[in-house]
Specification:
Layout (H helix, E strand, L loop, with lengths): L2 H19 L5 H20 L3 H6 L10
Helix pairs in contact: 1-2
């Protein structure tokens, strides 16, 4: 997972948390979005997304030798 991908995931998670805190989202939608934001934070923290492995996606820059 590339650094830009991690940053985008963290920003999305923060925006969702702020919207929840301000009361802009509530109910089931809020719970689902908060679950996604937790997943985004965890995948950013560990630099690993299981769906990327399944679909063969790589957002990390290739190392050249």
């Amino acid at each position: 997972m590339g650094s830009a991908d991690k940053l985008i995931r963290v920003l999305i998670a923060v925006v969702i948390a702020v919207l929840y805190y301000l009361g802009k989202i509530e109910g089931t939608l809020a719970l689902v979005l908060l679950a996604f934001s937790l997943i985004f934070l965890l995948t950013s923290l560990f630099s690993f997304c299981p769906l990327y492995v399944i679909f063969g996606i790589n957002t990390c820059k290739k190392e050249t030798k």
